[in-house]
Amino acid sequence: MEKDADGFFTSAPPAASAPAETTEPQPASEPTEPHATSDLTTDLIKSTFEVSVTLADQQADPNSPLFSVKSFEELGLHEDLLKGIYDMGFTKPSKIQERALPLLLANPPQNFIGQSQSGTGKTAAFVLTMLSRVDFSKSQTQALCLAPSRELARQIMSVVVTMGKYTPVQTEYSIKDNLPRSTTRINAHVIVGTPGTTVDLIRRKVIDTSEIKVFVLDEADNMLDQDGLAEQTLRVKNALPRHGGPQVILFSATFPHHVRNFANKVAPNANKIELKENELSVDNIRQFYMDCRNEEHKYDVLVSLYSLLTIGQSIIFCQRRNTADRIAQRMTAEGHKVASLHGAKDAAERDAIIDRFREGKEKVLITTNVIARGIDIMQVNMVVNYDLPLLGERDNWSNRQDARPDIDTYIHRIGRTGRFGRKGISINFVHDKTTWAQMEQIEKATGKQIIRIETNDLDAMEEQMKKALK
Ligand SMILES: Nc1ncnc2c1ncn2[C@@H]1O[C@H](COP(=O)(O)OP(=O)(O)OP(=O)(O)O)[C@@H](O)[C@H]1O
Questions:
Q1: Nearest in space to 281 (alpha carbons), one of 73, 52, 118
Q2: What residue stretches are annotated with the Helicase C-terminal domain (predicted)?
Q3: Is 417 in the pocket of ligand 1 (CB under 6 A)?
Q4: pTM for this one?
Q5: Cis omega (within 30 of 0) on the bond before 108?
Q6: Could you tell me the CATH number of the domain that includes residue 395?
Q7: Residue 43 domain-assigned?
C-alpha cells in the first residue's frame, strides 16, 4: 500500500511485511438475519471491512493481542464504567472499539486518529476514554469534546450521561443559548459543545482549560476543514495546555486528503486506524435512485413515497434551508405529517424538533446538511437525497452545472440509516443531465452500485424497497 506524505494510506492493500502497519482480514460475510438485534450486532462484530492500524511506536506490532480486545472486561475499566456499558445493552466491543479502545486507553496517553464507517460505535469509544481519564475527586474540567452541530453535541452528551450514570461525573454543554449569560465558571468534568460557543466561553474564562486531559473532535474532518469549522476549532485547541498537553482524539467516517495533513498536525504522533477508500460506507445500506422529470416532479415523487417514508422513520436531505421549509410547508398543507429542521431555526426549536423525531413522534424529517453527520436514530430506515450534496454550493449556486458532488457528505448522509448493522435504504433524486452525472460520480467514488427504481410504479417500488429492508 502506498502512503502519502502524511502517513495515511492512499491505495492498494498494505504489504504484509510492513512492521508497524497491518490490514486485518475479516471473516467472509454471512447472510444477515434482519430482525434479531443480537444477530445484527454479531454481524457488525464479525464485520468484513478491513482496517489499517498504524502505531506511533514503529517498533510495536499492531497484530499483537495487546492491541485488540474481545471483551470490555479486558480493558481494565472501573467497574462503575463497565456497569454503565452493560446497562446500555453493549455486550461486546464493536470492530472499531475492539481495535481502538486499547490504543485510546493505554498509558501514557497517545494521540489517536480513528476512521470507521458510520454507525459502528465510534462515540462509545471516545466517551469511554473521556470518562476513564477523569479524576472525579477534582471539580475541574478534564475532558472536552467538540462536534459540528448542537444536535450531535446533545447526542454525545446523552452517551456521556448514560455511560457515566454509575460515576459521579459532572457535565456541561458549551452550545448556544444553554448557559445563562451571568455564568462565570464551569467546573464540570466533561464539556461537550460546538466550536463557536466553546471559543466564546474560553475567551470569557468561563471554561478553564488548564486541567484538560482529553480533547476529542468528533467528525474531525469536518471540524478541521478550512471551509468549515477549522478556525474556531483551532482557537480552542490553542487554548489547551501546551506542556504535557491533552490526549487529542480525532474520529470520523471520512478523512479526505485535503484535511489529513492538518489532522496530523493537530494530533501529532497519533496511533491511527483507517479504512480503505472503497470501504467507506457499509454494505447494509442499499442505494437507489429515481429519475424525476424536473425539479417540480421531485416534489410529486416525494409525496408519492410518503406511505413508504413512514413505515419506519425517514430523513429527507435538501441542499438549502428554504427548500426544506418549502417542501415541509407544502406537504403539511396537503395533510402529510412532516417536520423541518435547519440551522436558521432558533436553538429551542431545533432541540424540540430533533427530540420529537428521536422519540418517534415525527416520522419524516426534512432537513439540510446540519444533521448529515453523527445523528444516531436506529428507527431511521430511509434516507432521501432530494438534492444531491454538492461541494462549494454556497459560493457557486448560480453555476450549478460545474458543481461537483460532495462525496463525504453523501457518505455521512446515507449513514443516518443502517446503524450498527441494521438494514437501510437511500434514494437519490436525479432530474437532469447534471444531477445524473453527479450521481455517477458518487457511484464511482463510493464503489457501491446505485440501483434505479421506477417513479411511476408504486407497487414495484414498494416491493423493491421492502426487499431491500428485509
Ligand atoms: N459495542 C456495542 N454493542 C452494541 N451497540 C453498540 C455498541 N457500540 C455502539 N453501539 C450502538 O451503535 C449505534 C451507533 O454508534 P455511534 O453513534 O457511536 O456510531 P458512529 O460510529 O459514531 O457513527 P457516525 O459515523 O454516524 O457518527 C449507537 O446506537 C450505539 O448505541
A1: 118
A2: 284-469
A3: no
A4: 0.88
A5: yes
A6: 3.40.50.300
A7: no
